[in-house]
Amino acid sequence: AQITASAPLAVYASRQVVLAAAYEDDATLKSLTNKLFADVMASEDTKEGLTAFIEKRSPNWKGK
To answer: Rounded distance, CA 41 to CA 23, Å?
Structure first.
């Protein structure tokens, strides 16, 4: 239940890396992680998460 309450883009990115770890080499995993991290950090959800933290409220995730 706690995972599903988290930012959906971050959960998706984490899941992609975990699944890829079963068959990709370290260099590919590092590249994938860097790309997904950059995508998540540039998202509206990241801004919402930071704003919600500063305003001491629960975030309203949109998956964007």
So the answer is: 26
Domain locations in the chain?
Answer: 8-54
Report d(CA 38, CA 31) in Å as an integer. 11
The pTM for the full model equals: 0.81
**Per-residue exposure over 28-56, b if at least 16 CB sit within 10 Å of its own CB, e if not:** eeeebbeebeeebeebebbebbeeeeeee
Per-residue pLDDT of 21-64, as tens digits, reads 999 999 999 999 999 999 999 999 999 999 999 999 999 999 89
Q: Which CATH architecture has domain 8-54?
A: Orthogonal Bundle (1.10)
How far apart are the C-alpha atoms of 25 and 27, rounded to whole Å?
Answer: 6
